[in-house]
Every structure is written in structure tokens, then in C-alpha cells.
């Protein structure tokens, strides 16, 4: 684990045809709006045209497609970094005798897909998906930022545990997702999935694409709320 930066890229998580279809639908949408950040619209910090697709019947097929792609990448992430779940949550499961036993990192390697998938669904939930269109030479999110902030009274933004991005196209220069402290730039490649932690340790920015527009789908993986994990009491 020495030297891990906890930034994982899954090549080809979504097929090129699926990516192209999403881009085409986005280009034709009448519902695009100026890209927002937590405090509102600030084009000097983020300049994009966005489309929030969660909860929309006309985009339900794309939401499902993206969540399936992210789920597969997330399962691999949990196997590589089981502390994603066991560090913040004191997880217990029955052993062969039926007695509760606290899970350890080593247990994740022997879990089958169904058991790990059940654990994932018990502890985590998908966030709202946003499609983003960055115009060549002017679009981007050059402000160094992380994904946690306390402005939301419902505390939903503080439940964000991991961020993800699926790059929907390439064929342009720059436009990387750049992580400040890890000194790492992730170059967009069609269909690749990026997963990373949301906290200040993974402060990042979206560099401006040059010579072509950049399209991405992005969201978060959130903890289940306390009342779901622990009950209303």
C-alpha cells in the first residue's frame, strides 16, 4: 500500500458507443444551464454547460447505465482499499457460528461479489449525476477545490465519500483532472472512470481543454444517512 494516492482509473468502464450517444443527446438538449458550484454560478471559477439528469424520466436509461459502470469500478476500489468502509464504520458480520465479528481489511479479499455488493449497498448510495460540457479554450473548472463543504443545511455535501468522473470523449489537448497534493494529472480517455476521495487531501481542478470540447459525467458516492445506518434513534 506504500505510495498509494487513492486515485483509481478504470479504463473502458463505459463503451465508446455509449459515450458518443450520451454526448449526442447532451448536444441536442434544451435544458443545459450554466455550470454551478456550491455557492452558485461563478464563471471565473467554473465555466461549463451542465445538465442534471438524476430524477428525470427521459434520462433514466443513462443514469442506470452510468451507475452500473460506477458500481463495477467501486467494487474494485473497495477490494483494493477496504479501509474505505472499515475505517469510518465499525462493521460487523456474523461468523460461521452466528456470533458477530468485526470485519478486517483481509476479509474483503475473500468476499464474493454478492456479499461485497450487499455491504456496499448497506453503507453507501449514489449521488445525483451531472453531465458537463466544457468548450475548447474557455471551459474548465480551474479553481482548486474539494467535494466536501458545510453550506448545505441537510448535510448531504458532508456525506460525500468518493467522487467519480466518466470521461465521455477525448481527441483534445489538456483538459486533465489535476490533483494538487498528489501532483497527478489524469488525462481524459473516452469511457474511463476516475474514482478518488472527496476531502481536502484530494484537492483538484479541471483544466481547460484545447482544440476540442470536453464532455464528462460526474457525481459522488455518499454514505447512507445515519437514520438509515443506525435507525431513527
Automatic annotation (TrEMBL):
Give the top-rank taxon of the lineage listed in the UniProt record for this protein: Bacteria
Pfam families documented for this protein:
2OG-FeII_Oxy_3
User: Where in this chain does the record put each Prolyl 4-hydroxylase alpha subunit Fe(2+) 2OG dioxygenase domain?
Assistant: 134-221
Q: Which InterPro entries match?
A: Pro_4_hyd_alph_FE2OG_OXY
Q: Mind telling me what this protein is named?
A: 2OG-Fe(II) oxygenase
List the source organism: Luteimonas chenhongjianii
Amino acid at each position: 500500500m506504500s505510495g498509494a494516492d487513492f486515485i483509481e482509473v478504470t479504463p473502458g468502464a463505459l463503451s465508446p458507443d455509449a459515450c458518443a450517444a450520451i454526448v449526442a443527446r447532451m448536444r441536442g438538449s434544451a435544458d443545459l444551464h450554466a455550470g454551478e458550484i456550491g455557492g452558485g454560478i461563478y464563471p471565473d471559477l467554473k465555466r461549463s454547460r451542465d445538465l442534471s439528469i438524476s430524477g428525470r424520466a427521459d434520462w433514466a436509461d443513462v443514469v442506470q447505465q452510468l451507475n452500473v459502470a460506477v458500481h463495477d469500478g467501486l467494487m474494485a476500489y473497495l477490494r483494493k482499499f477496504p479501509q474505505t468502509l472499515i475505517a469510518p464504520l465499525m462493521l460487523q458480520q456474523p461468523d460461521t457460528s452466528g456470533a458477530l465479528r468485526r470485519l478486517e481489511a483481509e476479509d474483503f479479499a475473500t468476499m464474493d461479489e454478492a456479499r461485497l455488493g450487499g455491504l456496499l449497498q448497506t453503507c453507501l448510495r449514489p449521488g445525483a449525476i451531472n453531465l458537463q460540457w466544457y468548450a475548447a479554450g474557455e471551459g474548465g473548472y480551474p479553481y482548486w477545490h474539494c467535494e466536501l463543504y458545510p453550506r448545505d443545511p441537510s448535510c448531504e455535501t458532508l456525506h460525500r465519500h468518493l467522487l467519480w468522473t466518466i470521461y465521455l470523449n477525448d481527441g483534445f489537448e489538456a483538459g486533465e483532472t489535476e490533483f494538487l497534493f498528489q501532483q497527478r494529472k489524469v488525462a481524459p480517455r473516452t469511457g474511463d472512470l476516475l474514482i478518488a476521495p472527496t476531502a481536502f487531501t484530494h484537492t483538484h481542478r479541471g483544466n481547460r481543454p484545447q482544440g476540442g470540447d470536453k464532455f464528462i459525467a460526474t457525481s459522488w458516492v455518499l454514505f447512507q444517512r445515519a437514520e438509515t445506518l443506525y435507525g431513527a434513534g
